[in-house]
Design brief:
The protein has one domain: Sandwich (Immunoglobulin-like). The N terminus is likely disordered. It is mainly beta and 285 residues long. It is 12% helix and 38% strand. The longest helix is centred in the N-terminal third of the chain and has 14 residues. The protein starts with 8 loop residues before the first strand and ends with a strand.
């Protein structure tokens, strides 16, 4: 059942200053091939789970339980972000755009739906010959190693989230359209209740930085190190009454319940194949 609905070059750049709040970024690009011999050949792949659901989607509650049942058995080996869509109060233009990103040419979508490292995707309960998402699938998707080491740290001050990203290429990473995505997520939310009896929601996307289109990267050579200093300031006050006909306006309001519960998930993705090369969740500092 579904519900339709890249030694030494220093470059400072403005990632975004837009009507959707306040976002500033700085990028340090360091190509340090002299140290290649000290690098490992690859890194463990940390699977990114992008879950699309919503509080007014009946089967989404069960789908969340299935996903978390699998992830609980693989601690430290995954990242998960939840895009609230459908008619959830915490849906946003960015979360809807992210769902439609995986449906090129379409204007409607179904939920619940799960993408694992982008290119692997299924209905979390009805896919996989109606076995849904399983630990066997998780292990299959996690078997290939990653050509990237990815580190993220963050701090929260008031309504501002500052975070630092370090990308180290352990091998050549091709791609004419390579992107880095960053999502600020809230650990648990309670105020976006709907009709499906779910009383709390985990890893909820609050803002993508700079937006759902991500940050463009050049193809990576082994030994390349990219460092980014990024920031997003949530504007205004907490707003109620948001939903599909009244999406949150990031230029003047927000839907964050607890700022200290915010963290950041970052991933590097090939925009053509959807393949996510690596993901990382932030540690606070």
């Amino acid at each position: 059942m579904s519900l339709r609905v890249r030694t030494t070059l220093f470059l400072s750049l403005l990632v975004a200053l837009s009507a959707c709040g306040s976002s500033v970024g700085e990028n340090n690009n360091n190509n340090n091939n002299n140290n290649n011999s000290t690098l490992p050949d690859s890194a463990e792949r940390i699977l990114l789970h992008e879950m699309f659901g919503g509080s007014n989607c009946g089967p989404c509650f069960g789908a969340d339980n299935i996903l978390m049942g699998v992830l609980d058995q693989r601690p430290g080996k995954f990242n998960v972000i939840a895009y609230q869509v459908g008619s959830d109060p915490y849906m946003s233009r960015e979360t809807v755009n992210r769902r439609l990103y995986y449906l090129p040419g379409e204007s409607s979508y179904s939920i619940p739906y799960l993408h694992v490292d982008g290119a692997n995707h299924l209905h979390p309960t009805l896919g996989n010959e109606e076995r849904g998402y399983t630990t066997d699938l998780f292990d299959e998707f996690a078997t290939p190693t990653s050509p990237i080491e990815l580190e993220v740290t963050h701090s929260v001050s008031g309504q501002t989230v500052d975070f630092q990203v370090k990308i180290t290429a352990l091998d050549y990473v091709p791609g004419d359209d390579l992107l880095m995505h960053a999502a600020i997520i809230e650990g648990v939310t309670y105020n976006n209740l709907g009709i499906n009896d779910q009383t709390e929601f985990h890893h909820v996307v609050k803002k993508m930085v700079p937006d759902d289109k991500g940050t463009e990267l050049d193809p990576l050579e082994r030994g390349d190190i990219l460092e980014f200093n990024l920031s997003w300031t949530f504007q205004g006050d907490y707003v109620t009454g948001t939903g599909p006909s009244n999406l949150v306006d990031h230029s003047s309001e927000h839907t964050v319940e607890e700022f200290e519960d915010l963290s950041v998930v970052v991933w590097v993705q090939d925009n053509d194949s959807w393949q996510v090369h690596q993901s990382a969740a932030s540690t606070s500092h």
